[in-house]
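Class, study these two lines:
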Amino acid sequence: MLSLWCRWAWFGCALWLVAPFCAIAGPQWAEKPEEHVVQSVRPQAPSHWIDIPAPFVHVLSEPGDREAAMRLSRRSSQRLRELSEALRVPVGDTVYVYLTPSDEVFRSLQPSRAPMWADATAYPGSGAIYLRAQRARVAGDEPIEQVLDHELIHI
């Protein structure tokens, strides 16, 4: 009986001495730590805004920006298909583009704080893009369509 006890004691001591090295050198079986992903919540547009639907996209704006919203709706639907093919990724869920008439509205609709210099932001988690209308832009002189293309890549 003593020899059985000695064997178990020897095994326990060996395990106690080797275990720290096994944890360092052996495979890691722990679950992958969660990545920090900011999930965005897509806000409701003001009730008087119009919604211009197109394949894969809805562009929302004030009625006075209808022409620009229609142009952006056609552009974003076409560009989403092209980007999907070029990047070899599916288009995914519907993208909502908010064409904001002012800095105040641009900032109030954001699910988080936008940089002061930003003329547009994208939130892939909610499939939302926020663009300042041409008259409300503060940065750059590139066409709003180019800014939209850039934000679509983020989505």
In short: Residues 77 and 102 are 24 Å apart (CA to CA). The chain has four helices and five strands. The mean pLDDT is 78. The first strand starts at residue 50 and ends at 54.
